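User: Fold this; tokens only.

Assistant: Input:
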Amino acid sequence: MKIEVDTHAHTLVSGHAYNTIREMAQAASAAGLKGLALTEHAPEMPGSTNLFYFQNLKVVPREMYGVRLLLGTELNILDETGAVDLPRNVIRSLDLVIASIHILCFPENCTREAVTRAYIGAMENPYIDIIGHPDDGRFPVDYERLVKTAGRTGTLLEVNNSFLRPVGFRQNTKENAVEMLRLCKKHGVMVTLGTDSHVDATLGDYAYAEEVLREVDFPEELVANATYERLMSVLKHNRYVQGCCERSEQ
């Protein structure tokens, strides 16, 4: 399967990644990508950047080396209500928004019900496009409810290539990804493949994610970032921002 846009990557701004915007764009071009989403960790992630960085992204060119850049964030889901760590007016101004649960930013010893509610709360936010790495077994989730809510809200569920590496420290990621994908296939819910690259060398490499898709015989038409045009047409962000602009003009 050809993937035209990597929807999850980080630059050194995130604090524990290793390349600049320009270096990542150049590597994306070399990998044959048409688009690249740079989704820096939001402020509650230790070592990451601050609010002002996200407020000033308008100054950055949206194309480098022939690659279209989507400049956004990976928000931290903070509690079971789905609260996140950037204000809505800032989230709305970005090109693409992921919301994820991270061990450093979410309560420990969380229950399946609490995690499920947290994801559902985040998906109800009209400017959150993607739920990042929902296959992390350290945060158990009701996948039936997750998938159905994703379909209802138009939120994409991520298949995270980095989390699927055999040497990864997350729990049961492949088994959970298989379960999620089978339900997405059953209910016609779209997913996106992200490398979660923290270094330029891994951009555009979806080997582990593609293996899981083949195991499930997952249909290409439900992979949102298979083409740039398909991704842009299904992003929640674009629909809501455009709708707000149209209403304000009336």
